[in-house]
Sequence to fold (94 residues):
Amino acid sequence: EAQPGGGEVRVSSEAAEGSVRAEVADRGPGIAAADRERIFEPFFSTKNSTGLGLSICHAIVRQHGGRLEARPRPDGGTVFQMMLPAAPARTEVA
Fold:
């Protein structure tokens, strides 16, 4: 939906300083600034949908102590960034 004519979507992740970051970036038309402030609200949609997807994702990430943000790409499109606290390393005792 973000790129009706097809296009490129990039997914990246990294672990740093006790957290894990994942990003999904596209080169679609982007999200209007006024809409970016509301995209995580339940039932908000600019498309023909329920408007629950991003709201549910946002709630799940928050429940795990993280954050989910959207920002415009300088060259067009949108970047969604999710940050979650990293789980502590486990050691197994034999």
